[in-house]
Amino acid sequence: MIKEIEEKVNYCLNCKVKPCSLKGCPLNNRIPDFIQALKKEEYISAYKILSETTVLPGVCGRICPHEKQCQGSCVRGIKGKPVSIGELEAYTFDKAHELGYHLTDCYEKVNKIDKKVAIIGGGPAGLTCAAFLAKEGIQVTIYEKYDYLGGLLMFGIPSFRLPKEIVENTVKDILDLGIEVKYCQELGRDFTLKDIENTYDAIFLSIGANVSSKMGVEGEELDGVYGGNELLEYNLHPNYKGKKVIVTGGGNVAMDCARTINQLGAEEVTVVYRRAEEQMPAERKEIQDAKNEGVQFAFQNNIVKILGNQKVEKVELIKTKLVQKEGDSRLSPVNIEGSNYQVNVDYIIMALGAKPQEYVKDLGVDLNKWGNIQVDETYKTSNPKIYAGGDLAGIKGTVAWAAHSGREAAKNIIKDIIY
Predict the structure, then answer these.
(1) In the CATH hierarchy, which fold is given to the domain comprising 3-105?
(2) Global pTM?
């Protein structure tokens, strides 16, 4: 074991209360246990411990908001730095692969049983659900609209945060459990739920919700205004060379957009956020990395109008102040009258959240008030044969929470169709 990793492994106290696992990790990974296995250089054992609860350790170890999740609950973080849990999780995945150990080695081989489940969408929730069903012998088929799996993991997250090789290795591990994939099959275009409902004992919907939310301001229909989610997913960027770009939003998607555009040669990239820096939902590390790379920030500013003749030429901003409103848990931004000003800009990227595709309204299942598919505590929809998870069901927007929904849905599907 290299010295740097050894020091980080030995830093863990293996405390009895285990808040990193029980409170901080959406998947309740046995964090102290896998770290103790690493201490003994039992790499295979460490990987097997993680594989009890997750099939995405190489991914989550790299991109989870560790500060808000596992590391944010670490006992050592109370008076100092927390244990580097994410880095150790990623290291475990990488080391297991280096030693030729894979997911199929973690689970007992079982015979296929006469039960079939369709997974619609091969992102984090769908892949996780498929894996936990397949390891129980259920025949699983993934329907995927692209010619690759991984969803946002493949192109929605820049490679400088998540190398594509890690995603490809993760997907291969999962498919090797005996999962069938039908590529280039999009729900609503190539098939409907009615087409396949009688073929399968259950269906799990995990097509994501990657349509960028609008700002609701004048001029957002002009050429040069883009949705951040779509830019990252489809990788169809305009030429940013010598251009000034504004990214509006405060989450990790905004940071990913800003850093990607900056690396693609934009003259100036500015993140506009209507609250203060400490209120940004993005990870501190991502914000600092963006700053280190030259991305500018305009905190407590709000876009009120986009100006231009068919194409974006200027943007009108207004400064905000933060006030405590009754019933709100955090300070709310309020526009400061008369503080408007305009700046020249070539492109504006909206990274304000996302919603499901319009055709979700026609799937024949109930939606909640936000347009997400309504599920109960078992991830079942209003159709008892259909389950849903991930962003489509309005699950908290991290990969770990999406994976959690896929795993728990798999457990409930197994109960419903077998027992």
Answers:
(1) Fumarate Reductase Iron-sulfur Protein; Chain B, domain 2 (1.10.1060)
(2) 0.93
Q: Annotate the chain with three-state secondary structure.
A: CCHHHHHHHHCCCCCCCCHHHHHHCCCCCCHHHHHHHHHCCCHHHHHHHHHCCCCCHHHHHHHCCCCCCCHHHCHHHCCCCCCCHHHHHHHHHHHHHHCCCCHHHCCCCCCCCCCEEEEECCCHHHHHHHHHHHCCCCEEEEECCCCCCCCHHHHCCCCCCCCHHHHHHHHHHHHCCCCEEECCCCECCCECHHHHHCCCCEEEECCCCCEECCCCCECCCCECEEEHHHHHHHCCCCCCECCEEEEECCCHHHHHHHHHHHHCCECEEEEEECCCHHHCCCCHHHHHHHHHCCCEEEECEEEEEEECCCECCEEEEEEEEEECCCCCCCCEEEECCCCCEEEECCEEEECCCEECCHHHHHCCCCECCCCCECCCCCCECCCCCEEECHHHHCCCCCHHHHHHHHHHHHHHHHHHHHC
**pLDDT band, residue 1 (cuts 50/70/90):** confident
pLDDT tens, position by position, 377-416 = 999 999 999 999 999 998 877 899 999 999 999 999 999 9
Instruction: Specify the fold of 212-353.
Output: FAD/NAD(P)-binding domain (3.50.50)
Please determine, for residue 326, whether its predicted confidence score (pLDDT) is greater than 90.
no
